[in-house]
What we know:
Blueprint: E1 30-35, E2 38-43, E3 51-56, H1 65-74, H2 76-81, E4 84-90, H3 94-104, E5 111-113, H4 118-122, E6 126-127, E7 132-133, E8 135-140, E9 146-152, H5 160-172
Parallel strand pairs: 3-4, 4-5
Antiparallel strand pairs: 1-2, 1-5, 3-8, 6-7, 8-9
Amino acid sequence: MGYSDSDENCCGGEDCCQKLQIGHPAPNFKMEGYFKGEKKHYHLEDFKGKWTVLFFYPLDFTFVCPTELIELSKKHKDFEEVNAQVLGVSVDSVYSHEAWAKDIGDLNYPLLSDMTKQVSYDYNVLIEEEGISLRGAFIIDPEGVLKAYMVNDITIGRNIDELVRLIKAFQTGDLCPVGWNAGDKTLGKA
């Protein structure tokens, strides 16, 4: 791929190139995606006004990935209730996504194709020597600002309920103590 440590991530604005950082604009993207029989292009700005969960996984047709993706789909209503759009991302083609959907069933969110691996690189989840992505989940607010991310190795699946909990906590606008859940007392305005 030829990326070097001196390359910078560009989040879409002319003067907005910087490393991935909480509280700053999330790197912009344009990827082709597959969703329930349709292929089209998706951009981060398509989701302005909504929370976005960008959910990277290594590859279609693997073992851990379908457990996560199916659970995300089952929790679709939970994400809908917090005005959040889930976007699954892997380095597979949209044709691979389409074929895999025949095996695991249609999901309630699009699967995006990062075949160039640029978006995985921009979000710092690319395992360059293997050409796949780590398991990264990025929460982006309705203005396009990165609020949280979790990244782990490819062998362990993530907790989907934690993503919903984090969005709910951010939406309070308050300080939330350890283990906070919706309905719990917050610590006051941040």
